[in-house]
């Protein structure tokens, strides 16, 4: 009698991917985000205008065959500036997300594994940061660090990590009581071993969902800071400072393309990333296994 062979079950990551690709809203977000990302990354290779090229003969030109999104008050191509603004927003979002994820994860790990006093001190510091008024804290930090890409990354990073620290701590407090972690600690495993062998692999789902959500938040924060003049300073292109430059009544009424296209790009990017983040959160939700 032939032995019965069973089909191996999918791992948790494969099941999460299966749930993600069945999520219509998440796929819609991917369908927006991927073409937008390709445009942002590749436009210097095929678009004839640079973001800061000035053409005084084409000032405030409406959308046409030459300038697809029209031009601004000094003749700069709005299409190139929208895509360059997206590139800067993604740089700020990616950089601040990586930094805040590292800070938040390390705080959460140390709080869970380094002992009672470390837990108490780190969590009180997290509580202190979270009780600060976010808008005021953001404006104060931005006024101290100044404008530019690196200061904006620093400001958003310092504001964004406490929530991740709490989530990681909650996951690792449950993990440290499991037998394999207790055995590893009993055999003399130090914090670096626990971090790399047990902490990071068991927090991948939290980190992925956090990163996706934080990218959207960082894009909004960068746009808000740039709109207020505390983020990316002109003449560098940013969705926020493009909206700031078009805030006058004359521009709003007579040249709507100067604010409509950067505003639409900002909304579409954040909406797409939020859809993807919601899909990832649902895909990694362990309760989905029960349905």
UniProtKB/TrEMBL annotation:
Record GO biological process: peptide transport; protein transport; transmembrane transport
Chief localization: membrane
SUPFAM superfamilies xref list: MetI-like (SSF161098)
Key words, A-Z: Cell membrane, Membrane, Peptide transport, Protein transport, Transmembrane, Transmembrane helix, Transport
Pfam families xref list: BPD_transp_1
Keyword presence, Transmembrane helix: yes
Membrane-spanning segments: 20-46, 88-113, 125-144, 150-168, 215-237, 257-277
Subcellular location: Cell membrane
UniProt topology in membrane: Multi-pass membrane protein
Domain annotation ABC transmembrane type-1: ranges: 86-277
InterPro entries: BP-dependent_transpt_permease, MetI-like, MetI-like_sf
GO CC annotation, single: plasma membrane
Family: Belongs to the binding-protein-dependent transport system permease family.
Protein known as: Peptide/nickel transport system permease protein
């Amino acid at each position: 009698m032939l032995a019965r062979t069973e089909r191996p079950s999918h791992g948790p990551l494969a099941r999460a991917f299966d749930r993600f690709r069945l999520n219509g809203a998440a796929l819609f977000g991917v369908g927006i985000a991927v073409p937008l990302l390709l445009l942002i990354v590749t436009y210097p290779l095929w678009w004839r205008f640079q973001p800061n090229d000035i053409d005084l003969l084409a000032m405030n030109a409406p959308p046409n065959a030459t300038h697809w999104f029209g031009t601004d008050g000094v003749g700069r191509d709005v299409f190139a500036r929208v895509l360059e603004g997206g590139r800067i927003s993604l740089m700020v979002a990616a950089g601040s997300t990586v930094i805040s994820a590292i800070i938040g994860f390390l705080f959460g790990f140390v709080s869970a594994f380094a002992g009672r006093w470390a837990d108490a001190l780190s969590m009180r510091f997290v509580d202190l940061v979270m009780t600060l008024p976010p808008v005021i804290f953001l404006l104060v930090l931005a006024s101290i660090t100044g404008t530019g890409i690196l200061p904006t990354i620093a400001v958003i990073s310092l504001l964004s990590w406490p929530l991740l620290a709490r989530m990681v701590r909650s996951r690792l407090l449950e993990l440290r009581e499991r037998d394999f972690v207790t055995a590893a600690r009993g055999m003399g495993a130090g914090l670096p071993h626990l971090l790399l062998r047990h902490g990071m692999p068991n927090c991948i789902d939290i980190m992925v969902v956090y990163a996706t959500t934080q990218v959207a938040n960082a894009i909004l924060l960068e746009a808000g800071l740039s709109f207020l003049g505390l983020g990316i300073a002109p003449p560098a292109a940013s969705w926020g400072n493009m909206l700031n430059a078009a805030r006058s009544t004359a521009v709003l009424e007579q040249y709507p393309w100067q604010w409509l296209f950067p505003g639409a790009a900002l909304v579409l990017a954040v909406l797409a990333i939020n859809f993807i983040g919601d899909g990832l959160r649902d895909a990694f939700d362990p309760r989905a296994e029960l349905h």
